[in-house]
Design brief:
Blueprint (H helix, E strand, L loop, with lengths): L7 E6 L8 E6 L5 E6 L12 H4 L1 H5 L9 E4 L4 E4 L2 H19 L4 E5 L7 H5 L1 H8 L4 E3 L6 H11 L7 E2 L6 E5 L3 H4 L9 H10 L3 E5 L5 H5 L2 E3 L6 H14 L9 E2 L1 H8 L4 H8 L3 H13 L4 E4 L1 H4 L4 H14 L9 E2 L38 H6 L8 E5 L3 H4 L3 H9 L3 E5 L12 E3 L20 E4 L14 H12 L12 H16 L14 H12 L12 H6 L4 E5 L15 E2 L3 H13 L8 E3 L26 E3 L1 H7 L4 E5 L4 E8 L7 E3 L12 H5 L26 E2 L1 E4 L1
Parallel strand pairs: 6-7, 6-15, 9-10, 9-13, 10-11, 12-20, 15-16, 16-17, 21-25, 22-24
Antiparallel strand pairs: 1-2, 2-3, 4-5, 4-17, 8-14, 18-19, 21-26, 22-25, 23-24, 23-27
Length: 728
């Protein structure tokens, strides 16, 4: 190929949040990204671009990123670069020996949020986990959305069958604990979320936000309601109670458990829950009536409600209300996306708690244990104690509860491997760091996020920049899986680990589909692309399933393909034992007793919540200079009345059951009295990232308590944490 001597414009999908926006990148002759624009020809994002996407080039070439494997000398706590072969040899020497001595359960893995945004995270991390052969699997899911997935699994039989609001057609949207104008949406893939909300109002619809803060999203709404953190489940039960009491229900899908749901709601009349939530009883009744009367309506709740004590009950009641008002699986209501390249359909109903953690006996969900107990499993001696850890694109020291405990726990591991682009607060404990390629060097297809899209859509982006002599991210994970088990990882036996993995998966899928003789028809420049082609062909729009879609169609349409609005999918997507929507799953009915008990408890005087920031994404985007200025500040937002009442100055000491921080105050009427807010993901004191360290902030998870979890899902509790404030 002739050398490139001038700039060129290339297309790809932004991998930095859940909005899956199309980007138009200009690269110079040296493969540097010189400009970023929104792709106006993308049928889904239509040119929308946020500050994170605009900074794509800065992230792609961050000078602090790790570019070669690093090996740490534990004696001197210093790093040295190594060749890929040397790094994998070292892993193959150390890791299998630990497992051989202490058993498979002495190994563990932690998966960070960026895995949901990469081809490698979806297709090759499962291979890595199978190589580990351990039940000690942890991820950011149990610090984020696990309550939604457990609730969906119990109601619909599959935790990936998650209804999303049909934003483009709804007449009424009730939003709790979500701030998509800053997060760009979550478990609701919707590029230009602000534009879609404005369009809702322009067509005469109504938009109501329930949140302890007047967020940017709340400012756009027709109505904002303050609510005490952690009480969303009470509010929703008050709405359910009213729908039954006033005979406003209009169930249009086949369900079980209607009477059991009515009985569970009996104790939560509007007057009773008003005292708990701070939302007047008359307002709760009005919300129920408005949802029932609207031509179409949807309730949507996100991380503020998931990361609370009753997170799973809240997510259950969200879709119970959608069902009771006739809006589940109906245009303009809450509907199920139909992704072009989904996974293998579940054959058995979802069941959480198939095993429990060793120390605290917390339940498994979706094959994972709660990250809130990871430190326990490392520090508690005994059979099955974690001694070796693999992390992939994660920084739980900053993003998991009781971060200081995790920091100390990681320091006592016998061996740790991290696949990561940075030396950060977590990976600084690793013995080996294996860096992934730059984003421009990787392919992109949103397997996970398009399962939650508000419109059916598909887009594939090939790598824009050659890999050179380094392995791809799939290659890194495939070689790592081999090294962890002591198998040849370098192809010296004539078998490339990546090709071997892909051929095994392809053969298995073809055999299951009865198409073993069609292997030669698969398209792609490598085995990874052939796997993507196979998934597209077997998908609901695929040419081997009565449609026309394959990889070549996406390559021929680099701006993406609009596959149409959401359409009704029940009962086809249900995997419950009855093949009906379960409105009263027993594990959730059992947990309602905890809610009733809390009605008699006095609310704490002051509680802590987190908050989203537009130019941030958890802990991994604070090393980009344009993104750590302006409103992206690590301050404690507090109502001025609380500042005066407590006699505070510019800073305060914040204390919880888990820890203590000294923080700068940001007085604002945008937060309700009795509530304070710290942003998530800061505290880069021990980071090798230059910009992040210069804007370190404080780690809010010094204050969160890993002993408190949402019981059905094991999810960490970050919102509604009792705290006290005092002068510095």
């Amino acid at each position: 190929m002739a050398p490139i001597t001038q700039s060129r414009t290339l297309l790809r999908t932004c991998p930095l949040c859940e909005a899956v926006c199309g980007l138009e990148l200009t690269l110079d002759a040296d493969d540097h990204v010189t400009s970023v624009r929104g792709d106006r020809n993308d049928p889904f994002s239509q040119g929308f671009l946020c500050p994170k996407g605009a900074s794509f080039g800065h992230l792609d070439e961050d000078p602090d990123r790790v570019t070669e494997p690093l090996i740490r000398d534990r004696t001197t706590d210093t790093w040295r670069t190594a060749s890929w072969d040397e790094a994998f040899d070292y892993i193959a020497e150390r890791f299998p020996a630990i497992v051989a001595e202490h058993g498979n359960q002495s190994a563990a893995a932690y998966l960070g949020n960026p895995n949901a945004h990469t081809v490698a995270g979806t297709l090759y991390v499962p291979i890595l986990l199978r190589a580990l052969s351990t039940r000690n699997i942890y991820s950011a899911s149990t610090a984020d959305q696990m309550p939604k997935q457990v609730a969906s699994g119990l109601m619909f039989g599959d935790p990936l069958t998650v209804p999303v609001p049909d934003l483009d057609r709804t007449d009424y949207l009730l939003m709790l604990g979500a701030n998509p104008l800053e997060s760009n949406g979550s478990l609701c893939t919707a590029p230009d979320f602000p534009g879609r909300l404005k369009a809702l109002r322009r067509r005469g619809g109504r938009f109501v936000v329930v949140d302890p803060r007047v967020t940017r999203t709340a400012k756009l709404a027709d109505e904002h309601l303050f609510i005490r953190p952690g009480s969303d489940a009470y509010l929703l039960f008050g709405i359910v109670h009213t729908l039954f009491a006033e005979q406003l229900t209009d169930v249009r899908v086949e369900v079980t458990g209607l009477d059991e749901l009515r009985a569970a709601a009996a104790a939560f009349d509007p007057e009773t829950v008003a005292a708990r939530t701070g939302v007047p009883a008359s307002t709760i009744v009005r919300l129920a009536r408005e949802l029932a009367a609207a031509p179409t309506a949807a309730v949507y709740a996100r991380i503020g409600t998931c990361t609370a004590e009753f997170g799973t009950i809240t997510q259950w009641l969200v879709d119970a209300v959608n069902t009771l008002t006739g809006n589940l699986d109906s245009p303009g209501g809450a509907m199920f996306a139909m992704a072009a390249a989904g996974g293998i359909p579940r054959t058995r109903p979802f069941r959480p708690g198939r095993w429990t953690s060793r120390v605290r006996e917390l339940p498994e969900a979706m094959g994972e244990l709660p990250v809130a107990t990871l430190a326990d499993e490392i520090t508690t001696p005994g059979d099955g104690q974690i001694r070796a850890l693999v992390t992939v694109a994660g920084n739980p020291v900053l993003s998991a509860p009781s971060g200081a405990r995790l920091d100390a726990a990681f320091a006592q591991l016998d061996f740790m491997v991290s696949v990561d682009r940075y030396v950060n607060e977590t990976t600084r404990h690793a013995d080996v760091i294996l860096p992934p390629p730059r984003p421009t060097q990787s392919p992109h297809y949103d397997f996970a996020l398009l399962q939650f899209a508000v419109r059916n859509y598909a887009r594939y982006s090939r790598p824009l920049v050659p890999l050179g002599d380094r392995p791809s991210e799939p290659g890194v994970l495939a070689r790592l899986a081999a090294a962890l088990t002591g198998r040849p990882h370098d192809g010296a036996d004539g078998v490339d680990p990546l090709t071997a993995v892909d051929e095994l998966v392809i053969a298995g899928l073809l055999h299951k589909a009865g198409l073993a003789d069609r292997r030669g028809e698969l398209l792609g420049e490598n085995s990874t692309e052939q796997r993507i082609d196979l998934m597209l062909r077997l998908g609901p729009y695929g040419e081997w399933n009565g449609g026309t879609l394959n990889l070549q169609v996406l390559l021929d349409n680099p701006h993406g393909i609009d596959l149409g609005p959401l359409r009704p999918r029940l009962p086809g997507v249900l995997r419950t034992a009855t093949e009906q929507v379960d409105l009263a799953p027993q594990p959730l009915l059992d947990d309602v007793a905890r809610m009733r008990d809390r009605l008699d408890h006095a609310a704490p005087e002051l509680v802590l919540i987190g908050r989203r920031q537009l130019r941030s994404n958890n802990s991994w985007m604070h090393n980009i200079a344009p993104l750590v200025s302006g409103s992206n500040r690590c301050t404690l937002q507090i109502n001025p009345a609380d500042v005066a009442r407590l006699g505070l100055g510019d800073h305060a000491v914040v204390k919880s059951a888990a820890g203590t921080l000294t923080v700068p105050l940001e007085p604002t009427d945008a937060i309700m009295p009795g509530v304070v807010s710290l942003p998530h993901g800061w505290g880069h004191v021990d980071s090798a990232q230059t910009v992040a360290r210069a804007h370190a902030g404080v780690n809010a998870n010094v204050l969160t308590d890993d002993s408190v979890v949402d019981v059905p899902s094991g999810n960490a509790v970050f919102n509604g944490v009792p705290v006290t404030l005092s002068s510095v």
